[in-house]
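To whoever is on call:

I kicked off a structure prediction for a single chain this morning and the downstream step that reads the tokens threw a length-mismatch warning. I double-checked the sequence; it's 415 residues and nothing unusual in it as far as I can see. Pasting both halves so you can look.
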Amino acid sequence: MKHFLILGGGTAGTMMANKLRRKLDAEEWSITVIDKDPKHYYQPGFLFIPFRMYEPADVVRPKVDLFPKGVTFRLAEVEKVEPDEKRVRLTGGDELSYDVLLIATGTTPRPEETPGLKEELWYKDIFDFYTFEGACALADKLEDWQGGRLVINLAESIFKCPVAPLEFAFLADSFFTERGMRDKVDIVYVTPLSGAFTKPIATRVLGQLMEEKDIEVVPDFYLERVDNDRKVLVSYDEREVPFDLLVSVPVNMGADMVDASDMGDADDLNFIPTDKHTLAAKEHADIFVIGDATNVPTSKAGSVAHFEAEVLEENILRHIEGQNLLPDFDGHANCFIETGRGKATLIDFNYDTEPLPGSFPLPVAGPMRLLKETRMNHMGKLAFKWVYWNMLLPGRHLPVSTRMTMTGKQDKVAS
């Protein structure tokens, strides 16, 4: 019996376990998923919890229920990977050998990496919404908050779901408007980027939305520390931004086991060196990496993990059969962006092409619109929850091209 081992039972690991169980002979290959958390969270739903658009129960299911017969789910924490021995050590001393290893350990917020962030004001006047606990605590805070200066801050430029902070700003504008207290709330978006987003055309469109909704953008702000006594953010160049309520997107880092393992020249944030087209670990045969655990230069988002899985399924099978890997992953990402008041926009891009206006997935007919606010886009965002539980995680085929196409896109955009 050969052993296929998956580290991480989140979105990417669950998709791959379901896909591979259908393709690998159960009499020849065992598949084991290891994760330290028994609960699976629909993380895109964390955004909606603070605004009472979702309840906490809407985003949680037991992980064990999401794997098919023939996949073993083991609740344990990985201590380190030993590639030369083709072995994984678990906290507590157990060891597991593998023939092929897939690392899908994701990334997590690390507020403790920023001085002053996770101190006396944490979950009092400083919150995150990238964790289940943080989103729920922030919902309670907003329930009776009387207004003031709401600051949304990105501590780093690399983090999962890069559009979520923008969505939070837009939904906050909508939330306080509906409550009749928008005039009592100043919304400030503080980012290390030079604008609202990373790509010029999208930054221009999203920046205009920020301006229309009276959301102040403070660019090029590299957070050094949070002064809890004075309630101010302090940058490395000593600029200061005061807040009454701080919603933080903390530093994101890969799993601690990456730092403990011989995974090659992993970066300071514990992201694993990965071939950006084949998704093989750069320095180790028999190891593949998917989702937020990689260092590939595209968004850390669920859509990326889905498109990676389509390529990775084929490459793992080719690897097992001794064939060359296909360099087929092009960095494809697409994301709905909630803009509040029942509307959303949509972006679709890859390594080489920035988000462009147009229609998606069909030319002219759409029905989704790229870089334009529409109610249909909003409905698509809400519908994704059903797609996630019923199609994405089970590894079923979705009618969206794995590779990004220029169909429907305007490749010439006026400046």
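Update from on-call: the warning came from a stale cache, not from the record. Cleared it. Sanity check on the structure: The longest strand covers residues 333-340.
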